[in-house]
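Quick one, tokens below. Sequence please?
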């Protein structure tokens, strides 16, 4: 039993050390829509790995929600897409490095995407084979929570991009407007590099058989996924360690 506690202490110490190794400094400001978000410095956000006291319970809930992705959608024929119902295909993903399939959907969606919740219209085109993928997701604001609202969460998004970003990519991407979140090569992370281990599927089907008497002119979509890269972040958050530095802070909502 003593060996178990020693190993646990070593692991936690390594996590804390990795968090303290972050060197936060001034970065270029991020433009989100028409609002320019000031870049935080050490004096405002800090480089501490410890979970902030601000909204502790809601941060734990957000970390838990980050593990899962669930969405349902419905659509119909329309003047934009023509006689073919914009709901077709299937796409399977095993981390950001394993893809297979093609899915197209354009319609209304109710979705739980990590810490982002909402009901909105979207156009979704995702395809891939092996590590290569093509990602084009455009979602309207709709009825959304804090993290899915590009205006309310702009400071948090700026911190995810400026301070936590890696190689020009945001650490955590919840708002998909079709700009800057396309993945064309194996090394892109359309959901943010924190979410590299996302594994799930996208399914979109027409109801009935197109161009036949039993064509309902309607389509449905279903998506489900689990992000194992977020599990450890949730567990450590319970004991007070903000592993991914994605907890909402007071400066994020000023």
């Amino acid at each position: 039993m003593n060996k178990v506690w020693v190993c646990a202490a070593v692991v936690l110490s390594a996590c804390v050390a990795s968090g303290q190794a972050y060197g936060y400094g001034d970065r270029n400001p991020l433009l989100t829509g028409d609002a320019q978000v000031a870049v935080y410095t050490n004096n405002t956000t800090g480089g501490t790995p410890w979970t902030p006291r601000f909204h502790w319970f809601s941060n734990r809930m957000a970390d838990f929600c980050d593990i899962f992705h669930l969405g349902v959608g419905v659509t119909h024929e329309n003047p934009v897409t023509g006689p073919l119902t914009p709901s077709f295909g299937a796409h399977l993903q095993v981390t950001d490095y394993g893809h297979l399939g093609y899915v197209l959907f354009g319609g209304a969606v109710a979705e739980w995407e990590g810490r982002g919740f909402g009901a909105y219209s979207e156009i979704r085109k995702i395809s891939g084979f092996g590590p290569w993928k093509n990602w084009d997701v455009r979602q309207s604001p709709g009825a959304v929570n804090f993290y899915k609202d590009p205006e309310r969460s702009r400071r948090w998004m700026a911190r995810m991009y400026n301070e936590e970003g890696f190689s020009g990519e945001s650490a955590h991407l919840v708002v998909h407007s079709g700009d800057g979140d396309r993945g064309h090569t194996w090394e892109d992370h359309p959901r943010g590099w924190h979410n590299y281990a996302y594994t799930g599927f996208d399914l979109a089907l027409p109801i009935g058989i197109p161009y036949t008497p039993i064509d309902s002119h309607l389509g449905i979509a279903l998506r489900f996924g689990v992000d194992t890269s977020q599990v450890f972040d949730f567990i450590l958050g319970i004991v007070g360690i903000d592993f991914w530095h994605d907890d909402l802070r007071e400066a994020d909502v000023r």
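The first strand starts at residue 30 and ends at 32. Residues 200 and 225 are 4 Å apart (CA to CA).
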